[in-house]
Design a protein that fits this description.
By secondary structure, the chain is α+β, with helices and mostly antiparallel strands. Helices cover 43% and strands 19% of the residues.
């Protein structure tokens, strides 16, 4: 993935973010490591969210991670705390201010659906199989009813060839 693609994904993810959840000004610099390496920043000032493809030297915090991790954090598919605990994210600067970015992300991206338990998955699977079996049974019954309703054709009588030839002629 290129730097431009990464930047575009994060900018798209934050386009509907509600900057009013941030008190004052917040500037977070993203430092992408590995493939697509580069820097960009997200700045919230007076409720206005601005994502720019430059480094921002007067930032509150800097998030350092690979592209996949930064995209997941920005789209609310991974919590920054989880990435940090796994060692996939480094934070430089004011960690408290960096965690405020989470509030911004939550207003922009819908929350993930909760994971289903094995029991829920099995119940859904059984429900689908039962619906499929019912549909197949209904189809078979309809086919049988159509068969019975159709008029039966009688076979045309066959002419018998007489073994005996008439000798009257």
């Amino acid at each position: 993935m290129t730097y431009e693609e990464i930047y575009a994904k994060v900018k798209e993810a934050l386009k509907n973010a509600d900057g009013s959840v941030i008190d004052g000004m917040l500037a977070i610099e993203f430092d992408i490591t590995g493939e697509g390496e580069g820097k960009f920043y997200v700045k919230v000032d007076n409720g206005v969210v601005d994502v720019q493809p430059y480094d921002y030297r007067d930032n509150d915090a800097r998030l350092i991670a690979d592209a996949d991790t930064l995209i997941k954090i920005s789209t609310n598919r991974m919590k920054a705390e989880t990435a940090y605990a796994k060692g996939a994210l480094k934070i430089e600067g004011n960690v408290g201010r960096a965690l405020e970015f989470k509030k911004l992300v939550e207003t922009a991206a819908p929350a993930r659906k909760p994971r289903r338990s094995k029991e829920q998955i099995e119940a859904e699977k059984a429900e689908k199989e039962a619906a499929k079996a019912a549909k197949e049974a209904e189809k078979a019954a309809a086919k049988e009813a159509a068969k019975e309703a159709a008029p039966k054709k009688k076979a045309a009588p066959r002419k018998r060839a007489s073994a005996k030839k008439t000798e009257d002629k």
